[in-house]
Amino acid sequence: MDEVERYERYVGGSPEAERLVFERLAKELLRVQLKAKRRSGAAAPERTFHAKAVLGVENGRLRFRDDLPEALRTGFARPGAEYPVTVRLSNASGVRRPDSTPDLRGAALRVEVGPEEAHDLLMTSFPVSHARDAREFVAFAKAMAGAGSRPAQGFALFVRLPLAVGWSTAARMRRNVMAGTRRTVSSLALETYWSRGAILWGGAGPVRYQLRPAPGTAPALAGPPAGPDGLRDELARRLAAGDVVFELCVQRYVDPRRTPIEDGSAEWSERDAPVVPVATLTVPRQDLHTAGARAAGARVELLAFNPWHTSEGFRPLGNLNRARKLAYEASSAHRLGRRFVTVEPRRNALLGTPLRAVFRSLNRVVPWHRLPTPVALLNLMAFRQTLRRHNLIDTELHEAPPRPGPVEPPVDEELLVRRSYDGSHNDLSEPRMGAVGATFGRSMPPDYRPERFDTPNPVVVSRELLRREAFIPATSLNVIAAAWIQFQVHDWVNHKRFPAGTRSVEVPMPPGTDWRNTPGGPREKVMRFGDDEPLDAAGSGRPPIRFAGGVSHWWDGSEVYGGDQGVATSLREPDGGAGLRLEQGHLPTGADGLPVTGFSDNWWLGLSAVHTLFAREHNAVCAALRGEYPHLDEERIYHTARLVVSALIAKIHTVEWTPAILATRTLDIGMRTNWEGPPKNWLDQLGVWLLEANARDGIPRTLPEHHGAPYALTEEFVTVYRMHPLIPDDYEFVDHRFGRRLDTLGFADLQGAAAEPLIRKTGLVDSLYSLGIANPGAITLHNFPRSLQAFQRDGEVIDLSVVDLVRTRRRGVPRYNDFRAGLHKPRIRRFEDLSQDPETVARLRDVYRSVDDVDTVVGLFAENPPAGFGFSDTAFRVFILMASRRLQSDRFLTVDFRPEIYTPLGMDWIARNGMTSVILRHCPELAGVLPRGASAFAPWRPVQPVRNHDGLG
Predict the structure, then answer these.
(1) What does residue 106 show for φ and ψ, rounded to 5 degrees?
(2) Confidence (pTM)
(3) Cβ atoms < 10 Å from Cβ of 435
(4) Tens digits of per-residue pLDDT, 192-214?
(5) Cofactors per UniProt (predicted)?
(6) pLDDT of 668 higher than 80
(7) Catalytic center residues
(8) The CATH number of 2-335 is which of 2.40.180.10, 2.60.40.1940, 3.10.105.10, 2.40.110.10?
(9) Domain boundaries, the chain
(10) For residue 206, what are the contacts with CB-CB under 8 A and spacing of at least 6?
């Protein structure tokens, strides 16, 4: 890299700053590409430039000269070496036009050196670019987008372009374009093509290359070829008669003044940098009209050429070339249907800014949840737009400067129609996005302060503010709702931890107290538990606050199906059956007594009931698919059933669980709008039309959209989903037929290895009934389960409330007041602003020095939530950002949520079913106790105990 940096100068002063600029420019080029598609009426996007191929062949040969100069002998450039080459010759315009239209012409070569090495050489039929750098290039493309007629082109060149780049720059760009396009082209075999930008040529340093007709090439007939495809017809006749041969030549770098690297508009004079022939390209004699030639041409059209398909010794140089890496990847992905562009309607863009300003002012006086429902919905849409603009931070490390690499292999066709095991290839243009191992994102800049890790002491915070003193019920919910959210969180988020005993966090115990860190172990003055495994090791120069997910971030049912192929296969029926293994309707258990399922951490009976229910649901979908489509093999049935069940889970969470825990009319309408579009009344329709017209039919009918940052769940999302107070400490198990009490147990009696024997003894029906008639705990202070404050897991004894506090601090999540401010809420100035309970205020004042020290989890629990809400308004702000994002980023819940992928039966299954129907399919005995007119997460009807003739229960 040091050798390369001698020649290059980065925009913004650093590779990373330049990458951000190029990323923005690449997005602008995608919009140009989409505009060209609309103008041409094409069914799919074309290449942003060089849309119309004149020739595409796979049988070219490149042979280096035997007398190759010594200084140029490096890498694959060896005397006499010969390689197969794919050749594409084209017109330069981004719109398909007749070959006689004035235009530049292009050549793209893919030199196949070996299985892991190829070199893409891209050239255009003019020595220099019209643009000095990427910014000018994109400005020109935007100015010319949509300019099809001559008057429109004149307006673009003489009005729009000067406004974008200035008069003198626009004049120079016009001169270059006109000089390159005014010539009459009679044959592409007679054109010379220049690289314009430089590449490294091993130890010889930078070169520009060119492709010119070999000596002795036959002239073309006089005048331009006739017809819209005249240049292609001319080449076909020429190749029918003999080979077409070019010389590949290079010009070597001299100095920054005469042979500039960064300025693509400056010519390398042949006087200063003589042209040196290095190889011969031969397109052999052939008939382009055969079926084989047409098929080869079609395959060439699917290729994505990129000058960064090369090796380090031949890396591209200069601003334009560095920008091409991102631009070409984005453009190719868009053209091939792997990346999508959503154009915001002009009215939404124009009205969005003033409407957001109006609501910001209004909310200082009236919070959104006290507004009339239609206005509150509009308020939430406006606020979600604010969050999308300001609270999605990309935490992945991207290559900067760009690095060369091999040609990417074609995407496995199966991954187009099914979810991968590890969450990869959901976004086909960035296969690792959201997959197992992807980095957690951020909704606000991290606040990493090691000096505050133990201040105030988290054990004291837990004892004074979190510990359950008396059970506070959430009377609008049942315990299935508590099990459900853990079921979901296990699908979404799991930080990788160091194995117990290898690297631990040590929390000092308050004076006069101690802790037993292992079952039966010694009493110690510290509480110890496994540390998170950061991505950035000590000495990297970065704080250890980036963490990889141990499960995929997508809504893909990985808690049921597993996060890799080995686990997924082990859960299936023997001999490749599509169903999931069950033992008499229950999950099989392993040697450790835990169930064999996708994710069994922190296992308890509530999780077992929901997992069992959806394992059975998977098998029911498989049976229905077999009956409806007998030609489908078991592999296709398995993956289709997984798609259906995962989407059904997403629907249940969106339109049933969320409105149950956020029980307001506004949220009920809002979440249903996410899934199926707004209600059909004119006021709600108008609100969506004004602000988010693209979602007028529901997110599943939109295109995937990441809103400016790669999809990932965020550390703040993890923080607001710390809902452990939902878990009761004791449970009563009741017979669903007679209301007879079966048993009363503490949480320790139904967690871990005790859960599976208990659910088999009790049965799924009575287990669900017992959870359905019981209330979970309210998400508030003084309600953290005592059973989780001495919780045995992986050979450790942990206080989970302390773990929640410590991990939030160590992950750099800002403290509560900064967290509020980061979500555009006013800061609190005194403890009384947080709680109206005098005793709670007194305890807060005793524990914390100031309101700015209050832990995020404590503040979220202390807030007085809006009426009907099960958690705080601050937590809700993260929720409304991510609730739609989990749907809208997912290819299988947007563009590929369709019968061709899911089957018509699968789409109908998702549309007709919900949590109640899933329960009744597998436990029909519960029909009489499930709520009428409410979701299955609301309290069920308890059966009155039947008394015997002695009057005893």
Answers:
(1) -135, 155
(2) 0.93
(3) 23
(4) 999 999 999 999 999 999 999 99
(5) Ca(2+)
(6) yes
(7) 490
(8) 2.40.180.10
(9) 2-335
(10) 7, 198, 199, 200, 252, 253, 259, 261, 317
